[in-house]
Amino acid sequence: MASIAGLLQLQGHRITGSDNAAYPPMSDMLRELGIPVLEPYSESNLDQVPDLVVIGNALSRGNPEVERVLDQRIPFASMAALTHDEFLKGRESLVVAGTHGKTTTTSMLAWIYQVAARENPAFEPSFLVGGVAENFGSSFQLRPTRTFIIEGDEYDTAFFDKGPKFLHYFPDGLILTHVEFDHADIYANLDAVKTAFKRLVNLVPRRGVIVAYDASENVTECVSRAFCRVERYGFKADSDWRIENLRLVSGVMHWELWRAGAKWADLEMRLAGEHNALNATAAAALAANQGVPIEAIRTALAEFKSVKRRLEVRAEIDGVTIIDDFAHHPTAIRETLRALRALYPQSRLWAVLEPRSNTLRRKVLETDLVESLRNADRVVLAGVYQQQRIAEDERLHPEDVVHALNAAGTPAALCPNVEAILDEIVPKLLAGDVVAILSNGGFDGIYEKLPARLKARA
To answer: Can you tell which superkingdom this protein's organism belongs to (predicted)?
Structure first.
C-alpha cells in the first residue's frame, strides 16, 4: 500500500493515507515522500473527501473508514485492481510469485534490468515490490519504458474481492519460487493454495515464459498444464537452469550457472544462503529469456545489496550482532537461520520470534516451526500477536513449542512481552553472539530497544 501510494504520487496525484499503527521501513519511506499517514483509523480522516479510496486487504466491514466509504458511496478500489488499471495496461508484466522469496527475487530482477539500462535505456524498469530494495532505496519506480516488474502476492485482494492479488497482474513472464501451505486465515488447505497458483499459471499467454523451481512437487503440479514454455531452475541434473559448485567465500557466495546442459555464467553475490542463490538464479533466468545480456546479469547480482528486513544487520554493539528478518513461515525461518549459520559459523545463534503472521499464529505448522527453530542455539518466543483474534482450538501455543525445543535439546524460553525478552537475553548475550529477530511486524520496538539495552550494558 505504501508503494502504490508512492507510484500514484509520481503520476501527480495528491495522496493521503490511514493506518492503525504504521512502522518502519514503510512509515519512514512515506514520511520522506511527504505522504501524511493519519493514525488511527477514523471516519474523520475522510472529512476531506478524496476522489478515490484504495482499500487494503487488512481492512474489513466494521472499520470506521470502510463504513463511511460505503455510506457515502465514495469511489473505492483495491490496490491490485488499481495497479493493473494505472500501471500494467500496455506494458510487459513480469510477475514474481511463490510462498517464499518473492520480495528478494523481484528486487533482484528489477536491479538486473536497471543495470542493463546503463547500456540500453529501454531496459530501465518500472517496479513495485513489498519491501524497500536497498539498491534503489525504494519499493517502487515508475519509468515510461515497457517493462513493469511486480511482486505477485497470493493473499486475498480486499474484503470485496477474495481472490488473490496476483490474478490482477496478467503476467507475460512469471517466476514461481515455491508453493507451500500458508495464509491459514484464508486458505483452508494446501489444495486451495495450489488452486490459486494454477489460476495464475493459466493467465500466462502462449508467447510467455514461466521460470519455476524444480525441487517442489507442488510447483510441478501447478505448472503442469501451462500453455507457454516452462523452464525449471535449481540443483537437479536435468534442470534447464542448474546451480553447480555453490560456495561461500569470505561472505561472498559464488556458483556456476548451467543452462540446458552447458555452462552459462560464473555468478557471485554478497548474500548468503542457498535460498538466495535460487532467488538469483530465477531472476537471471527470466531476465535472460527477455533478452537481458549475460554481462548485465552478472554485474547486477555482484552489486545486489538486499531488501530491508531480509537478513538485515540492524546493529553491532558490544560484540553482539542484531539481525532483522521478515519471518512469516517455518520454511522462511529455517532458511534464514541456515544462512546465518553459514555467515557466522563460529557464533552462538539466537532466534527471537514473534508469532505474528496469520500462519505462525496458528498451530497448523507447529511441528515444522519447532524443526526450523532447532537451527538456532538459543530460542526465545514472544506471545502470539493479538491471540484473542484466533480461535483457541486453532491457535499456536508457544509454550508447546518451547517445551518441544527444550525436550529436543535446544534451550528455549517463553516471554510475554518485549521487556521480558530483553530481561531474559541481555544478561546472557556474549561477544560474538548473533541475535536473529524474526517478525513480520514492528515487534513492539525491539529493534530499537535491544540495541539501547546493549549500549547501556556496555
So the answer is: Bacteria
**Integer Cα distance of 414 and 395 in angstroms:** 16
The domains located in the chain, with CATH, are: 2-74 (3.40.50.720), 91-303 (3.40.1190.10), 312-457 (3.90.190.20)
Residue 388 C-alpha cell reads as: 484473542
Instruction: Give Cα separations from 353 to 198, 321, 429 (angstroms).
Output: 32, 16, 16
Q: What is the DSSP string of 314-342?
A: EEEETTEEEEEE---SHHHHHHHHHHHHH
| pTM for the model | 0.84
* Cβ proximity of 365 and 398 under 8 Å: no
Q: How far apart are CA 236 and CA 223, in angstroms?
A: 17
The helix/strand/coil state of 386 is: coil
Digit-by-digit pLDDT tens for the chain (458 residues) are 999 999 999 999 999 999 998 877 788 889 999 999 999 999 999 999 999 999 999 999 999 999 999 999 999 999 999 999 999 999 999 999 999 899 999 999 999 999 999 999 999 999 999 888 999 988 999 999 999 999 999 999 999 999 999 999 999 999 999 998 888 888 989 999 999 999 999 999 999 999 999 999 999 999 999 999 999 999 999 999 999 999 989 889 999 999 999 999 999 999 888 989 999 999 999 999 999 999 999 999 999 997 877 778 899 999 999 999 887 789 889 989 988 998 899 999 999 999 988 788 888 888 999 999 999 999 999 988 888 888 888 888 999 999 999 999 999 999 999 999 999 999 999 999 999 999 988 888 999 999 999 999 88
- Residue 233 CB partners (closer than 8 Å, separation 6+): 211, 212, 213, 214, 239, 240, 241, 242, 243, 278, 281, 282, 285
Residue matched to cell numbers 512469471: 174
Q: Per DSSP, which regions of 179-240 are E strands? A: 209-213, 229-234
Handedness of CA 319, 322, 323, 327 (dihedral sign): positive
Q: Which amino acid is it at 309?
A: R
> Residue 330 in contact with residue 365, Cβ under 8 Å?
yes
Decide: 62 and 40 in contact? Cβ < 8 Å: no
**Cα 458 to the center of its chain, rounded Å:** 34
Distance CA 334, CA 311 (A): 12
What single-letter DSSP state applies at residue 145? S
